[in-house]
Specification:
Length: 509
């Protein structure tokens, strides 16, 4: 396909890169990339060997010595050029995201636009790595703080956003003066190679050294190398709660730093005082967008009892009209799931919730070969449920929407918060008091809380992340840049005396 050629994708590709150079792998082990559209193989990618990993780390360490001394605004200009290069390749990269991951083409383009947006944000941030000046209690002394880069930043990203989440971390870390080691998902390895190819053009044009943006490819073992590597002071990991626990335990054991963005069990509270049509549209996108495979996907819908049946019927009407099919087709709104295991997990969850007593209101069927090509297509499901059921307490990475009733606002907030995850949340209401209560300290306990906006579709200007088992990390906007840097307090004595703090006298003849 033309977009693969434009992105430098071939039949067999090296999955290890130090920025401009892809390392020739002697390993026999390869990852086969399949498109979930029709389950055909796209290409092979070689798995990073231990020897190649050591070469990447060594190259990155050398690059850091030079990159950290380039003024931050100059580093920002490199990121600006990366953003411009992404603009040139937006259509091709967006198409690859769709082809390899399965989200619809509009979402694939949107993901690349997120990369462009975070580049723009990082350019501005490169001139705003502010420290503070504090008054000293000692005369003729100046005290201030400044921020320095940490060094090597390890980035482990997931299949559902194969390029955007990497850029949230990498572009901020880059302007902060760090160099990157990126391991993307083994389910979407070609997206990582394509991004490396795009960035390499900018690095080459600016005569920058190898090792600033690095790529390693593989499964759990490669991630474990990174997590246990004392040469990587920061690991930013996106994925399941199980994976996050392992990363946190390993990195904490060596007193390293982590940014964890893990599972979400996101809910929308729908008040009786709401614009039902606006709410229904937001719910549909949040629940079925990316075929329910976003960490911010809407999974629980907590509906006031007076409007429960009305909203349920409206959602069924919307779901019946949602076009399911090839995500590269412009008319499609829901593409395939990533693989057969994801389909099986969805079916198991639906079986369990019905055994608990839930009613399958709509959907849930696996679409067979007579209806679509041999991909992993399902019909998004709507199910009535109770919040305390075990399966509802878990995050099933699938387009399943649980409908739950409530009577009053206190009950709704209790139901909303009574899960282990705390990523994204929303309330649809036209009642100012309800809205402010939901956003107050007694309201949502999530890292993201919205009013009359769905759970999915965060902008890059705000720090992204959640609480509880979501991990507590923050990426992207606001002051998230501080996580990629170390704080240093400095004191300068410009007097001809040596006064000590706290008035201590220590006279030495």
């Amino acid at each position: 396909m033309d977009f693969l050629r434009k992105l430098g994708i071939e039949g067999t590709n090296s999955g290890t890169s130090t920025g401009q150079e892809f390392l020739g792998s002697g390993a026999k082990e390869k990852i086969a990339s399949y498109t979930p559209i029709d389950n055909t193989q796209i290409a092979d990618v070689t798995v990073t060997t231990r020897e190649e990993y050591e070469q990447v780390i060594g190259t990155a360490q050398e690059a850091f010595k030079e990159w950290r001394m380039i003024p931050a605004p100059k580093r920002g200009d490199i990121v600006r050029q990366i953003g411009d290069k992404l603009r040139e390749h937006k259509e091709y990269l967006g198409r690859l995201v769709t082809y390899e991951m399965g989200k619809i083409y509009q979402e694939g383009l949107g993901e690349v636009q997120e990369m462009i947006d975070i580049c723009d944000f990082a350019v501005g941030q490169s001139r705003m790595l502010y420290g503070k000046t504090m008054p000293s209690e000692r005369p003729r002394h100046r005290m201030y703080e400044q921020w320095h880069p940490l060094g090597l930043t390890g980035i482990i990203s997931a299949f559902n956003f194969p390029v955007a989440v990497y850029s949230w971390n990498a572009m901020i870390a880059a302007v902060a003066g760090n160099v990157m080691i990126w391991k993307g998902s083994e389910k979407t390895p070609l997206c990582g190679i394509a991004v490396q190819n795009i960035i390499a053009k900018v690095l080459k044009q600016n005569n920058l050294p190898e090792g600033i943006f690095n790529l390693v490819t593989g499964g759990r073992e490669v991630g474990e190398w990174m997590s246990s590597d004392e040469r990587i002071p920061l690991i930013s990991a996106t994925g399941s709660i199980r994976m996050g626990r392992e990363v946190a335990r390993t990195v904490a054991g060596r007193l390293g730093k982590t940014i964890l963005e893990l599972g979400g069990n996101n809910a929308i509270i729908v008040s009786r005082d709401t614009d039902l049509e606006m709410a229904a549209r937001a719910i549909a996108f949040g629940a079925v967008g990316t075929c329910g495979q976003r960490c911010t996907s809407t999974r629980r819908l907590i509906i006031h009892e007076e409007i429960f049946d009305t909203l349920k019927e409206r959602l069924v009407e919307i779901y019946r009209d949602i076009p399911i099919g090839n995500p590269l087709d412009n008319d499609t709104l829901v593409g395939p799931m990533i693989d057969q295991q994801a389909v099986d997990n969805m079916q198991q969850a639906l079986d369990e919730v019905q055994k608990e007593g839930g009613e399958l209101v709509y959907g849930g069927q696996v679409l067979d070969k007579n209806q679509l090509a041999e991909g992993h297509y399902v019909r998004p499901a709507i199910v009535t449920a109770q919040n305390d059921w075990d399966i509802v307490q878990e995050e099933t990475f699938a387009p399943i929407l649980y409908l739950i009733q409530y009577t009053d606002l206190d009950e709704a907030i209790t139901l909303h918060n009574d899960v282990r995850q705390g990523l994204s949340s929303s309330m649809f209401t036209l009642n100012l008091r309800e809205a402010e209560t939901f956003l107050s300290a007694r309201g949502s306990d999530c890292g993201i809380a919205n009013i009359n906006v769905g759970t999915s579709g965060a902008e890059i200007g705000g720090a992204f992340g959640g609480e509880k088992e979501t991990g507590g990390g923050r990426e992207s906007g606001s002051d998230a840049w501080k996580a990629y840097m170390r704080r240093q307090t400095n004191t300068i004595n410009w007097s001809d005396e040596l006064p000590l703090a706290q008035g201590i006298e220590f006279n030495v003849d």
